[in-house]
Amino acid sequence: MRQRPDRLFLLTGGVQGLAFSWGLPAMVWWVVDLRLSPFRLAVLGTALVLSILVTETPTGVVADLYSRKYSVVAAYVVMGTAMALGPVTELFGVLVIWQVLWGVGWTLQSGAATAWMTDEIAHHASHSHRSAAVMPVEPSTPGDDAGADDGGAGGDAAGSDPSRQVDGLIVRHAVFRSVGVMVGLVAATALGAWSVRGSMAVMGLLSIAAAGYLAVTMPEAGFESPRRRAGGAPRLARTSAWRDAITLWKRGARLVRRSPSLLAVTLSAAVAAGAWEANDRLSALRLFELGLTGLDGREAVLFFGATWFVMSALAIPMMTWLRRHLERSQADQRSARRDAFLLARFLVIAAAGAMALALSPWFTVALIGWAILDVAGETAYSLTEAMANRHADSSVRATVVSFVGQSQAVGEVSIGLALGTAAQLVSLPFALAIAALLFAVSATPAAVVGWRTAASED
Question: Domain boundaries in the chain?
Fold first, then answer.
């Protein structure tokens, strides 16, 4: 039952979107039904990202050492469990625990899925190339020329560039994530009209079911555990496991420090993530206060479900454009400069949308600003992942991608709770305006790398 790795990688994007769509009934339950304060909403976000901060690198290292496939499978089991159990009680302390569990599950797949796909694509291309090399060559005829150009599956794999496939697949993964969000929103909205809390539980069970399917269908031929390669006695393997983990962690950190592009991605991600965390937790509350105070929980699910559906649909053409941009720039020596400038532009656009959400007294303008922020932020996130993956060595790819995720968690922990406190003590528009300024600041590292790269090329 093994399936093609590219298709399964895209499927994991859809499952990611399904997990994200759980946030619709959860947010409505927290804001409309439980009436949580801005500070408590920020605490929930901080608990989530603290768990990501603590476990992001260890789970990336574990995936690099043992199995990327089963790391992905375990991720959706853990996240699904947290999603299904989230609405069981209204006790705030228990809600925090489920957020921590969801964060641990997220880190299990955040670097592993991309690393798994990259190695499987490379393995398939290498295997096809070797198979083509040993095949007997038949005398060609004039009618065979067209067939040679088209080729079969093996010829396509042999002639294709795996690195070019990977960048495109990462962006298509984001498209499928948007589609998964849209499908999940339809399900969550329909179920939410029956029961908001029941909708949350069903979404968690669907995530666990998806994990079971991936466990059966995902191959893992392109990855060999360093533990297995090293061989030796089991006792020796046990005693050196932590040494191997530390070695991989240091290699990933060294690569980030020495690569200007990776360093820019990491710094930009850290600041932008803090701003994003504040908006993620407080934007719905801002819209609710501007013009939705008369809605009950079920009506709020319908409104936000429709709004998020439209925003996810708007993200799809942007992801399609980004995929084409990355495919064109793969063979361009100036791709690092162009990608850095592009990341900076998207972050500035996100800042403009966030400022409209924060300061506009009109509900419609704030809603449009929220949509601009969402689409630009999602595109910047996908570009960040593609840039990190492009500059990471295969042996530590999951670890390096997890480094970027960890930098985001650092920004979310250090900035998100502070802005939540500011919203509680000063005002919600004030906190969201600071978040908008931070989006603009996050564009600076990427822009600096773009300028320096341009100067060195000249």
Answer: 5-130+158-220+243-457
- Please choose, from the candidates 312, 333, 420, 415, the residue with its C-alpha nearest in 3D space to the C-alpha of residue 53: 415
Tens-digit pLDDT profile for residues 132-173: 455 454 444 444 443 434 333 333 433 455 555 676 777 788
Residue 33 token pair: 């039904």
For the stretch 229-253, pLDDT in tens is 545 444 434 444 456 556 656 766 7
Do 81 and 204 form a contact (C-beta atoms < 8 A)? yes
Quote the tokens at residue 127. Answer: 């295997």
- Is the domain spanning 5-130+158-220+243-457 CATH 1.10.10.10? The answer is no
CA dist., res. 384 & res. 390, Å (int): 10
Tokens of 34: 């439980």
8 Å CB contact between 118 and 127: no
56-96 confidence digits (pLDDT tens): 767 777 777 778 888 889 999 999 999 999 888 889 999 99
Do the beta carbons of residue 109 and residue 177 sit within 8 Å? no
The string of DSSP codes covering 269-314 is HHHHHHHHHHHHHHHHHHHHHHH-TT--HHHHHHHHHHHHHHHHHH
Which token pair is 180?
Answer: 């998964």
pLDDT digits (tens, 9 = 90+) for 13-48: 888 888 888 888 888 889 888 888 888 888 888 888
Q: How far apart are CA 253 and CA 269, in angstroms?
A: 16
Q: Secondary structure of the chain: what % helix, strand, coil (to 5)?
A: 85, 0, 15
